[in-house]
Amino acid sequence: MADEFAKGLGILVTAGLGWLMIAATYNTPSFEGRQLAAPNPDPETLNLYGQLAIMLKDLLFWFAILGALTFWVVIPAIEQAREARSE
Amino acid sequence: MTGDTPDEPTESATDRERVATDGGEDEVAADGTGIVPPDDETPTWSERKQRSQGLSRLTYEYFERSRREDQDLRQQSSYVERDVLAFPTWPHELVRNLALTSFFIGMILLLSAAVPPHLPGPADSGSTPAVILPDWYLYWSFGLLKLGPLNPDLSLLGGQKLMADRTYGVLANLVVVGAIAVVPFLNKGSARRPVEQPFWAGVGVMGVVFAFTIAVLSVKNLVPMDSHLLFDLTFLAPIVCGIIAYSVLRAMREGYMFDLNRRYYRLRPPK
Lengths: 87, 271
What we know:
The structure holds two protein chains of two kinds.
Chain A: H1 2-26, H2 48-86
Helix pairs in contact in A: 1-2
Chain B: H1 11-21, H2 45-52, H3 54-76, H4 89-114, H5 139-144, E1 153-154, E2 160-161, H6 165-186, H7 198-218, H8 227-252, H9 256-267
Antiparallel strand pairs in B: 1-2
Helix pairs in contact in B: 7-8
């Protein structure tokens, strides 16, 4: 139980940190405007690393959300269902 | 649990034997209800009940068992008992502290390199910025300066206010700081968890929520809400949240674990 919580939290904060750094670089045009959530820059203006980073950003975002949900909701629910069935 | 040391579990048995030796009947009630008058050793019904039933019995057995196991382990062990007050500084404490320190320094370096902070232009003392706000941790005090609607008009003074709104706001700061300063004298904080003193937990929740709502009030121009409604919510929300916290905690007091914990701290008071 506690292990699952720690795994979910680890995924959330680690992937979230990666997402934060990439979004701060590519999706924060100015301090006064929208931060971290501004639209992606035009892919034509980005080099290969930039395009990879944008892809990695989406990957990390969904990994953070789905990873935490998996360990906090899905796996405990499966465990509960298994217990309920075995009784 | 007032003053009954649970160290005489066989009391009633010895009583029964003693009674039987004087040639009495086989079945003699030794509990003070029979023909034998109760003496000082005879436990009362409430004492008997306290030791023989339910939670008190369970608690007593638990602590007696753990004490006994502890004693057995100490006697069996060949370990020479010493007074160990702490772990040695090197390597135990320092390695742990260095690991934590390295992690946080690394995090600072990583973030400052990957997420460089915004550097605004040089300050221009000649122009006033559009939005003037204190640092966020002073918003509550800034919000207290906006209590104008609470400043009463006195009919004695012909509808005049006794003091200016800004003076009133500064005095409100004194009231809030004074209330916070008085709380430790009213309650010493002996509760280990909120459920033990629901009233004071409710007061605490009220204070925390008020700190938040008054901070929101200070930036009411930026909050997408009717400012009169926001003003009312600033003072109603803390009261509502405090009452909810009080009732929830009060309901939790009925639980089994609360009773057990209370007994635990009576038996082993925290140092």
